[in-house]
Amino acid sequence: MKKSAKRLLGVVFTLALMTIFACGAFAAKPAVELTDVYFTVDAFDGVSPTVCFRNNSNKTIKYVTFTLVPLNAVGDRTSCTISGRSAVTAQVVGPIAPTRFDRTVANTVTSPASMGDFGPFQAQQQLATNYYFGAEERNGHRIFLDKDGNAYYVDSYTPSSVLSVIDHSKTLGQLDSTTYLTDDELQNAIYDAAVEWDCLWYNSTIDEIAVTKADIIYMDGSKESVNQKALYSGHFRSDPTNQPYYVLTSKYAPVYDYQYYKEHNADLAALFGDNQWKYLEHFVNSGMKEGRQGSSTFSLAAYKANNPDLVAAFGEDNQKYYEHYISSGKAEGRKAS
Length: 337
Known about the structure:
The chain is α+β, with helices and mostly antiparallel strands. 30% of the residues lie in helices and 26% in strands.
């Protein structure tokens, strides 16, 4: 190869690397990352903030000091009406180990059959480490494992309008908002560190607490600071990816039945065994697109054959046929089997 050609390839390769780095493809997570910040107010307008965070580093933290700033309803800084101070530094004493989801189970609670059939939640596995998932500007919710080892939490702030589709006789109202977490959420959005400081300010107009900096000292003596932008860069107050389990089972009931899907998809049965969540997750994310039959009452082939108007509209987009039957086809009395 000529030198000029080699030189050109070298330039192209260098530019490609620069582009990748500029796009942040290899950007590291901040050492400390916030998942939620909230506060309570007592009868004397004393404001007590709680900071929920992750240790994304590979080292154990000895101390982390947060700089907290109170804001009013229009986003401006405010201050304590007694001391006059605004920004406050608040320290957390470790050791704070790196946040890594550990599936070690400490205890299993099994609901007696007399209480009803709770499906995958018949046995609740409590983890040795308490992990939480913060959602919708609320205090986080503790994470458990179902009988098959899938991670979930109960989102007590799920709007009632979302839960209205559930047949409450099957859940007794106790599991309506049980929501499974994705692998990405388990790796990047859960937290196991939350600290509250009592009455840092007295002011009835405080509407939000901003964390502007985190100064970290590790057990090995090294130090690091994380700025405000980086602290809020990840899954701060992130909404769950999945809808509650019983919302999904109710929504897809016209086209999906767990037992049928398991019995008629041997390849999935070999992978999932009796894991109810994995079958539903597969059907919602992949099964409909692949045209798999999930129920004796709905056949994609039959729905296409009996409804040429839908074929003209949807073509080969399999998922749209399932969605149409759920939203209107069944109510219209269209033939689906």
